[in-house]
Amino acid sequence: MSTFDTINSAQPTWTQLAFALFKRCWEGLQARRQRARLCQALSGFSDRELWDMGITRGEIGYLAAGGTVDRDPSCLGTPTANRAEG
Q: What is the share, in percent, of the chain residues with pLDDT greater than 90?
């Protein structure tokens, strides 16, 4: 007499696969919303404030997506706004 054990099967069921897919989609949506909020918050700063933080306006999207900016402090110049005044 052989028994077919469905409880301990090695393959996930279709409901487990569907739930995993839904979870990945939900997490992706949440990450996208978080990046959008970060972009919006950083875009609210002036160019001078962004420069004080060590980033430029053009780098906002890259940084929100998880990128990093490494710079040598001796290479930093003055912000564009100050160059126009001087």
A: 50
